[in-house]
């Protein structure tokens, strides 16, 4: 396996070198223990990597266990000239001296080194695989210091910058966004030049639809600027809104107010226009932001990020939005659970699923799938059905709120209504797949579906037959993705039964599934559509980027006054709160 | 390592047995391939376990890849007499026939068998460790069928039962809870008898405080019943409340209403009184519930769960609350991400942390730590400070909302106010730890703190000195847990600055940190206190167990009518919603 294990000192049988010859030349290191033996051997053999396993996680920047101690991911000897081996003060090596000395010596001799913990139960054996795969494990020794801050430092800047952003007046946040919108049009030439570079590098390597998503144009930038101004105006009423007020006792008043969540990590794929849009949403909601864009849009993202920071500078909060280096792996970012409060993936449902798996303890907001149903009831109006099905399926079939499965009441088979639907689908060139029950009713059936749980995202549609509204609901619960499901009927009782019982984010009656959208719902800026059941569900506006905090203002109130033997009683009187503004 | 690897057919060099002698006796199996060779060898050698690794996950209950196919965790041959080898219909073995035959033969010969996937990248090698550790991997062949449903079946029952519960009228849910409250007092003797069994078995094995938490009494049951009736009354206004109404267009109205989250998993430690309380909260909010209690309270939990199901039966929703077998590992439950929507750990912060780590993709609601601060400003009122500090620290020091670090403005050192605080802490026998700055100001200082990030949970307090309110805020952000932090001052401007800038769930002015509590906040039933920033933050009432769904009622509305070329325009008119009831 091309691995030389070196277990411990007793295996070292060479005579010791002179005590003081260490580090006097690249070829001299005293072999005193397994660490120095390993370093010597690694250099002699020109190994690719020396892994030094210990019982601590790696090198810390202050004594391990102290309040501020942080693991050093990458250690640059050139940057740390003042390190004094043998003292514990500078890098908190406590017991690590020999390992660090050996590591530095091996690094000088041209071997990469990782010091990591080899004692984790259950995953021991795994640590080596992780290191070889290039994951962030332990401390990596490197000669070359990358330019710019580490992602941990960026996380801290986003946190403190975000807090400063949150402390601004709503008007100031809106002003930053307006400023960014101006910059997008003023600096158009520079942006398009950077985008041209991306396009040239991507040419021939990306498929046409992806190239289209990557490209920016004057008109795209203009409409982006318009969108930003909308976000700016919807931001006025978001942070600091009072949701609840309670008089707990005389002169003791409780208030629940909206506040930013903290630090968001937004991961997006090729579309660079995502960057200013997401940045504007974060600014509007007072959140710190880490942005991770695709490699293919690196040039465009860089200039767009610079402009965002320029806009933020007008109120001294430049650091609130950080662009993460393209070399950082998404998986590594997902481990920063102390720094990131919410991850928002913007892109394919595959991206969302991957990130949901990778995120360890950090909540992820995003829809993974949109398998939307429309149930045509036996009492559906002939005039409405075709119109509703066409809009739901054909208007923009790639959208997550487009129709994927049409459920038809059994009584409608072989009626003019049914023929009308099929004729319309033929005209619109929609490929029909038959559910097993539907297929069994037909003499000549279209190809049977492979799975009733399919998101076609194209001009394809599954049709299945159900006996009644209850069976339609059961089908939706079993095969749906709880995104958007609709009923077409003239019977109000059936409709309300459906609305109440279907357990989806959006449930519609006699309306196209395509209404499931933040803009169409009137939520102002749309953050995304969430199929999660926690925090935000369905189309999410700026509110999805907010949480709340409780403010209690008293005089000298203590809980013991309210105990059995105390002299006070809880009032718990709800006080009026200002109503939401009408748009 | 006591493992015999059997790689493939080519290694089998024994002559083939007669074709039809298979399964005719326990000692006869034709060695045709590696599977049969392995089974034969396993039985001959009396091995503990035969692991058959394949390229599929295990045995499925219908053809793998079909919509309904589910992995069989444990396969009981006695239960599946009708299995026909060679057909793919019954257990969807497609290609698995030889393996299943070998497995059944080995099982009959007294060897346990697991069929699992050995081809997962990255974790290959791990699957064997997982199996040996008893984790749920692949399909385990067993002769003994355990009584009762599997946890997956329980998850499905909780889901469908929960949906039925959610469809009841609020009055019916309240009735179930009242019924459970009655049963707790009516069936008191039976409950106390079961609890006595638990106590006897725990005697000498559990520490006194844990025994106290385990024990039930008539008075505990009575106050539990009172609490349940309160939950019942606060349940009336929870599910189905309209939060937002928007007129999107003429005759197209959008409504956002509260609905249950779905299925909750509540994990609790020794306290059996947790069970009816949590069940009542789930019932009140219309959620399905999986309960996982501690082994030490098994007898008490069993009877309390039976009574809960009895109460649920009055409206035919008995299955909505499931008690998970004590043998199920929490880690295995946390993997059921398709079945569980929210995990609520109730117990020590260690339990919460463990579960946050184990939960893969399922959100966890719970506070991990309460490191609460009180900042005494230079303009604090002498009369108030001592009173507020005493209540915050001494009234119930084990609570998560108790004070842990007192931050004192530098100007107060060596003033009568300062002496008053120290005198009070002496009288209350609070052990003082000095922060580094505080220690540097004193000639003789108390022992210096090991970490400023400590939750003592006892009559111990850290005191640190700060120069001003900004430094107090910085300290809280650096060392706090964003739970509850308070300021004592008479200066309204300083107070409002603190209230706005401290980034914690609860921020108080001139009030004890101990007010941070659902009951004291007037939230009715308390679900817990959340230090998460997502979904619910701070003290959480029934609302924390709810999410929302969007209902859209139209006539025949399609989005293409609202396009550039369409004839309709979005109105997005906010309609009034009913105000929250006053308690």
Molecular structure report:
Chain A has 583 residues and is α/β, with parallel strands linked by helices. The first copy, chain A, contains 17 helices and 20 strands. Chain A has helices at 34-44, 97-108, 126-132, 151-167, 170-186, 188-202, 208-214, 218-234, 274-284, 298-313, 330-333, 349-358, 382-394, 416-427, 436-441, 469-479, 492-501, and strands at 49-54, 74-75, 112-117, 139-141, 242-249, 252-260, 263-268, 288-292, 321-323, 342-346, 372-376, 403-409, 431-434, 460-466, 484-488, 506-511, 528-530, 538-540, 546-557, 573-575. In chain A, the strands form 5 sheets. Chain A has a 6-stranded parallel sheet with strand order 13-14-12-11-15-16, with helices on both faces. Chain A has a 4-stranded mixed sheet with strand order 1-3-4-2, sandwiched between helices. In chain A, strands 19-6-5-20 form a 4-stranded antiparallel sheet, with no helix packed on it. In chain A, strand 15, helix 17 (492-501) and strand 16 form a beta-alpha-beta unit. The longest helix of chain A has 17 residues, at 151-167. The first copy, chain A, is globular. The termini of chain A are far apart. At the A-B interface, strand 5, strand 6, helix 13, helix 17 and strand 16 of A face strand 5, strand 6, helix 13, helix 17 and strand 16 of B. Strand 16 (506-511) of chain A pairs parallel with strand 19 of chain B.
């Amino acid at each position: 396996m091309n691995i030389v294990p070196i277990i411990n000192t007793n295996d070292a049988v060479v005579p010791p070198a002179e005590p003081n010859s260490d580090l006097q030349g690249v070829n001299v290191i005293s072999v005193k223990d397994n660490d120095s033996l390993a370093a010597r051997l690694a250099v002699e053999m020109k190994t690719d990597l020396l892994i030094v396993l210990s019982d601590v996680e790696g090198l810390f920047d202050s004594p391990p266990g102290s309040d501020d101690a942080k693991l050093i991911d990458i250690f640059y000897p050139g940057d740390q000239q003042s390190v004094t081996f043998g003292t514990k003060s500078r890098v908190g090596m406590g017991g690590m001296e020999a390992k660090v000395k050996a590591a530095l010596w091996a690094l000088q001799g041209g071997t990469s080194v990782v010091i990591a913990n080899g004692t984790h139960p259950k995953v021991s054996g795994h640590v080596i695989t992780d290191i070889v795969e290039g994951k962030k494990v332990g401390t990596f020794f490197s000669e070359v210091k990358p330019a710019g801050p580490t992602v941990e430092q960026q996380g801290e800047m986003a946190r403190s910058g975000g807090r400063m952003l949150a402390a601004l007046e709503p008007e100031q946040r809106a002003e930053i966004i307006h400023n960014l919108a101006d910059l997008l049009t003023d600096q158009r030439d520079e942006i398009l030049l950077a985008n041209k570079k991306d396009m040239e590098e991507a040419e021939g390597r990306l498929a046409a639809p992806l190239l289209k998503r990557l490209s920016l144009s004057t008109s795209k930038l203009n409409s982006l600027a318009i969108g930003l101004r909308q976000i700016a105006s919807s931001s006025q009423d978001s942070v600091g809104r009072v949701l609840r007020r309670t008089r707990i006792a005389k002169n003791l008043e409780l208030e629940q107010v909206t506040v930013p969540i903290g630090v968001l990590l937004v991961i997006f794929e090729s579309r660079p226009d995502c960057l200013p849009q997401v940045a504007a949403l974060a600014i509007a909601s007072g959140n710190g932001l880490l942005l991770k864009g695709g490699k293919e849009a690196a040039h465009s993202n860089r200039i767009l990020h610079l402009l965002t920071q320029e806009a933020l500078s007008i109120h001294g909060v430049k650091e609130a939005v950080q662009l993460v280096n393209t070399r950082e792996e998404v998986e590594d970012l997902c481990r920063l659970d102390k720094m990131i409060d919410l991850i928002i993936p913007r892109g394919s449902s595959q991206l969302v699923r991957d990130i949901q798996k990778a995120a360890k303890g950090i909540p992820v907001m995003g829809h993974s799938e949109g398998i939307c149903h429309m149930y045509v009831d036996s009492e559906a109006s002939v005039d409405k059905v075709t119109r509703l099905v066409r809009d739901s399926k054909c208007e923009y079939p790639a959208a997550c709120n487009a129709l994927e499965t049409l459920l038809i009441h059994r009584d409608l088979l072989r009626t003019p209504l049914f023929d009308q639907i099929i004729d319309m689908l033929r005209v619109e060139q929609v490929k029909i797949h038959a559910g097993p029950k539907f297929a069994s009713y037909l003499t000549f059936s279209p190809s049977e579906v492979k799975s009733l749980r399919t998101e076609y995202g194209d001009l394809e549609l599954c049709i299945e037959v159900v006996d009644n509204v209850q069976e339609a609901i059961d089908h939706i619960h079993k095969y749906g993705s709880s995104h958007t499901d609709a009923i077409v009927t003239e019977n109000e009782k059936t409709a309300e039964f459906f609305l109440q019982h279907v357990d989806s984010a959006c449930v519609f009656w006699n309306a196209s599934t395509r209404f499931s959208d933040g803009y169409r719902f009137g939520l102002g800026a749309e953050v995304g559509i969430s199929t999660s059941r926690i925090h935000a569900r369905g189309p999410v506006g700026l509110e999805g980027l907010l949480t709340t905090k409780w403010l209690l203002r008293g005089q000298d109130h203590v809980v013991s006054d309210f105990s059995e033997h105390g002299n006070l009683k809880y009032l718990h009187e709800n006080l009026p709160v200002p109503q939401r503004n009408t748009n």
